[in-house]
Every structure is written in C-alpha cells, then in structure tokens.
Write a structure and sequence with these properties.
Strand content: under 5%
Distance between the termini: 71 Å
Helix content: over 70%
Structural class: mainly alpha
Oligomer: single chain
Mean pLDDT: 85
Number of helices: 2
Number of strands: 0
Largest sheet: none
Radius of gyration: 25 Å
Low-confidence stretches: none
Order of helices and strands: HH
Length: 79
C-alpha cells in the first residue's frame, strides 16, 4: 500500500504540466523521473567532491611527478 503524500496546489499544477509534456501516464511517473534525475545530480556532486578531495591530497606530489615528465632529459635516465 502506498503512503499518502500531501502536494501543494501549485506543485500539482506543475506536475500535471510536466505529465502532459513528457507524455507520462501518471503523476507518479513524473515524480519518479524527477527523483531519478535528482539522485543522479546528487551522485555527481558527491563524485566531484571526492575528486576535489583527492586532488588536494595529491596536488603537490602530482605536480612534482609532472615536472619529472616534462624535462628533456627524461629519456637519458632510462636504462
């Protein structure tokens, strides 16, 4: 059995408009689509935050390694 959800009149109108534009059969299809998009957006934001944290941790050492590869002498050091 579903759980009742109180929707404001303005939100109901917005859902109805989206339902028509999307060609969705029911209002819940619109809400489920919106939830999927919101979850994807939150997931992306979390992933970007993890990348930022990793970049901060690696930042200085990563630049040092990059400098090693940008020298013209890098091939002379090979055996």
């Amino acid at each position: 059995m579903g759980k009742p959800l109180m929707i404001q009149i303005e939100d109901d109108v917005r859902i109805e408009k989206l339902k028509e534009k999307m060609g969705a059969k029911t209002k819940i299809d619109v809400v489920r689509t919106a939830l999927k998009l919101l979850e994807a957006d939150v997931s992306r934001a979390e992933r970007v935050k993890r990348w930022e944290n990793a970049a901060k941790v690696i930042g200085k050492s990563g630049l040092d390694v990059l400098k090693d590869f940008q020298t013209s002498d890098r091939f002379k050091k090979l055996p």
